[in-house]
Amino acid sequence: MKKHLLKGLLLLATVTLGACSGESTAGTSNQTTVDTIKEAGVLRVGVKDDVPNFGLRNTGTNEIEGFEIDLAKKVAEEILGDPDAIEFTPVTAKTRGPLVDNGEVDVLISTFTITDERKETYNFTNPYYQDAVGILVKKDKGYEGLKDMDGATIGVSQSSTTSGLIDEEAEQYGITLKYSEFATYPEIKAALDSNRVDAFSVDRSILNGYSDDSTVILPDRFGTQDYGAVTKKTNTELAEYLNDLVNGWLDDGTIDAMITEWGLSE
């Protein structure tokens, strides 16, 4: 009886230790690290493909081009020794979070603004680009600034911080605004062109890419918009590695040169 009981306890201990060991291994295997990227042989990056000068699909070559694309390629070169060992996944403001959470991309380099609230959910590198929210309007509206836009409808991107920043400024002028959300920037520009919205608001550098002879960017600036590369919250080793890369490229002027090359120095 005692022998059977002892054997049962030993068996239970073995199963328990094996389960714990399995859980530990699974937890480690779920981590994306520099080594797992090297093993895969490809860096998976979520990028924008509708933002001129940051990430925009070239209709002639079908390739995505821009400052953030070049930045992503530099990361791939550092990790894998090949800037083309990379897989780009186009993202929107609404889809990019779930894609990194689900592990479908290793990193997001996608005009992702750093906020304290977002830091609770994601790892951000130090900022590689700084901007401010602006407003693009049609010239024939006659707007000179936000103060003239009481009752206007502003087109913004889904899941963005834009409307909150504008409302803070609007309170100072005692005006009320309405917002219409869109999935992509081209959709907002189309709505502006067809007068379905009175303005298009996002970061000023992005608006520059959508400005034309019929529009003007108002002088108003709302808040600081810092862009950082984003990783899943649990992927701390990869986050630290990327942050070191960004800091090094900021220090040696690499990022500034790329910003200038793409005409993003406001």
From TrEMBL:
<dbReference type="GO" id="GO:0005576">
    <property type="term" value="C:extracellular region"/>
</dbReference>
<dbReference type="InterPro" id="IPR001638">
    <property type="entry name" value="Solute-binding_3/MltF_N"/>
</dbReference>
<dbReference type="GO" id="GO:0030288">
    <property type="term" value="C:outer membrane-bounded periplasmic space"/>
</dbReference>
<dbReference type="GO" id="GO:0006865">
    <property type="term" value="P:amino acid transport"/>
</dbReference>
<feature type="domain" description="Solute-binding protein family 3/N-terminal">
    <location>
        <begin position="42"/>
        <end position="266"/>
    </location>
</feature>
<dbReference type="InterPro" id="IPR018313">
    <property type="entry name" value="SBP_3_CS"/>
</dbReference>
<keyword id="KW-0813">Transport</keyword>
<protein>
    <submittedName>
        <fullName>Transporter substrate-binding domain-containing protein</fullName>
    </submittedName>
</protein>
<dbReference type="InterPro" id="IPR051455">
    <property type="entry name" value="Bact_solute-bind_prot3"/>
</dbReference>
<feature type="signal peptide">
    <location>
        <begin position="1"/>
        <end position="26"/>
    </location>
</feature>
<comment type="similarity">
    <text>Belongs to the bacterial solute-binding protein 3 family.</text>
</comment>
<dbReference type="Pfam" id="PF00497">
    <property type="entry name" value="SBP_bac_3"/>
</dbReference>
<keyword id="KW-0732">Signal</keyword>
